[in-house]
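thread: overnight batch results

M.L. [08:02]
morning all. the overnight job finished for the chain we discussed friday. pasting input first so we're all looking at the same thing
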Amino acid sequence: MKKNFIIAIDQGTTSSRAILFNLKGKPIYSSQKEFTQYFPRSGWVEHNPEEIWNTTKKTLKDVINKAKRLRGKILTIGITNQRETTVLWDKKNGKAVYRAIVWQDRRQAEFCKKLKKQNKETIIFNKTGLPIDSYFSGTKIKWILDNVPKAKRLMNKKQLLFGTIDSFLIWRLTKGKVHATDATNASRTMIYNISTNKWDDTILKILKIQKHILPEVKNCSDDFGTTHHSITGKAIPITGVVGDQQSASIGQCCFDPGSLKSTYGTGAFVLLNTGSRKIYSKNRLLTTIAYRIKGKTTYAMEGSIFIAGAGVQWLRDRMKFFKNASETEKIIKSLKDNKDVYLVPAFTGMGAPYWNQNARGVLSGLTRDTGPKEIVRATVESVAYQTHDLFEAMKHDGLRPKIVKVDGGMVMNNWFAQFLSDVVNVKVLRPKVHETTALGAAFMAGLKIGAYKSLKDISKNWSLDKKFSPKMKKKSRNLLLHGWSKAIKRALIN
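M.L. [08:03]
and the structure it wrote out:
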């Protein structure tokens, strides 16, 4: 009997992956390739779209070949992606007019200040659920149009296309036949109205973006065309597309209002399902689309931490404190405590609930006794403290999570998972399948073709690996958080 598989393309901030899943949601085979990070100026972060495409293509072909060796049938492909990262390309030849501007990029900080001075924040927040920030795609589109003459020329000739990375990959995979995105990615652009589920004319006018460059917005589980046989050997349907954090929430089966997941990848993102209700935060959290299926929208509240795993990457690549990220657990365990050393990793500003684009990293509490070990611990601890700040914001908005499902590379560190539970004072559940971001895309793709009957049917595939319960005394927690609070104040002075 032939085995049935679903492929998930997981195009992330630092690497492209393709994962082969069986219909029970178990990863069978994975292929991954890192690509170059470009930092042309302070606060600027770019990717080469061609390198993204080539690494995606290679990993996809690798996984397809594995399925052949297993004598399996690939039913469909799902795509998940780094969300706000922006590409503009020529409709005729498919070539990007500029490098992809990454979600971490802060070059439009001053422009965002101008928009706020013009009192545009309330209009944009009410329509999109997002604050004005250079994090989102809309401001990145504007920068390219204002600074790359070719882009504006092509737009005026109706020859320019915009996309987040999912759209760019769909365009390439279908050989230019499909220009589309899904509702979750659209909701991160700052130009999409999450109430009407349409691109917003008022905001487009403010940013001077012509609507014809924008992709069609589809459901997360939908028909996104088929791959061209020259790329994948034979045509394969693409039936699921979800932004990475929403995809992780789907992979964690957070389908009930109140259910919560937190992903610890390059950045860290907390997503709380609010059902059919849009809850607008009074504490600077985002209102976003969790998923849209068969035209029905489910909303979420989100907190964004810009630097999580990227902090560990910084320790490895820039500071040269260790060779493998897995070494951090051993290093941290060698210390009894943090010795009052705190790192605020505001390398690209601060996300929720601070939304300070000008904040920069601060390392405080240093003494002559401070060494690499203390800095490593402070970096890893900072992610838990930032998560605590998001949970506090949610509490002030009347939402009190009792359980959080976690995923991402950092939670493979048992010490971190326990410390997280202690700091946020909530039970932490880690699933058996760690590739929840890719899994969410696979689930959406499978739902469209009938491999799964419903979200309830999908939920049967989630299983627990390990549970972490708070053990820290209240006094100890409060002392740590007091130290963190002082460090945050220093970072926000800028």
